[in-house]
Structures are given as structure tokens and as C-alpha cells.
Design goal:
2 helices, FN3_dom, Immunoglobulin-like, 2 domains, Ig-like_fold, 165 residues, single chain, FN3_sf, five-stranded antiparallel beta sheet, cytokine receptor activity, mainly beta
Amino acid sequence: MWNMFLIVVTLLALHRTDSIDIDPPERVRFKSTNLQNVVVWNPGMEGTHYSVEYAIYGDEDKTVEGQGLWRPVRHCTWILLNSCDLSDQTHKLDEIYYARVRAMRDSAVISNWTMTRFEPRSDAALGPPHFTLHTSGNSLDIYLKGPMRWKNKYMKKERPMKKYN
């Protein structure tokens, strides 16, 4: 009887270990204001790590015919945050981008990927303009500027959004 009890307990323990699962990230989407393009998702359980990859529509993996070329985002690999700034990777306005995120608890427990699509020209929102006020006697001067495009690593100086829309 004791042997049977040990076998049942062992089988239950093995079954429980094999059935540990992790849910994939939910509501993966881009938030973009002035072309600061950040992929965000709903956080999972505390202690969950995430990895992010992106792809450009039309780029194919040369090693696997018909397979899209997914690029890991180095600064968003094994992170605890529920967002990743992809502004440097998604800076071309006329491209279509994809991002995918997966959750991980350790190297053995990895979720499926959850994917989203992003088109900078149509999906980015414009932020408010910058303004300054100057008073002199009875007059008030209002100076408006922008909104300005988010400065990524490929830009040498700020650019107003009006040139792009």
C-alpha cells in the first residue's frame, strides 16, 4: 500500500511540473505620439519576464523560404517591464512594422508570441504644440512650435511633424 501511495504522489508531482504554463501577453499594441513608437502590453504575473522582436513587412528570412525576418530587440530581451520603445527600429514612415512579445518565467516556461501591426504614417498620434508666452506692456505674444517629431538615433536635429503629414 505504501509503495502505491509513493507512485501516485510521484506521478502527481511529475504531472504538475509538466503542466506549468504561462499565458502569452495580452493586448499587445503600439502607442505612438510624435513618432515615439512604444509597444505595450498588459502585465502578467509578478516576476514575468518578456522578450520583444520586430519585423518589417516584406523582409524575408533567407534561411527559411516564405518566413518573415524577425529581429530581436536587444534592449527588450528578458525584461520585467510591460513596454518597449521601438522608435529607433520603426523610424521609416512608409514601412509597415510588426512587433511580437512573449512571456517567460524561466528558460523552460515560455509562452506563445502575441503580435501587433504598426504603420507610422497612419497610426501615430500628434501631440500638442509647444508654446511660449511673452508679455510686454499691454500686449501678449504667443509663440507656437511643433509638435516635434520624436528624435531617434538616426536624426541629427529635431524636425517638426508638419513636414511628414
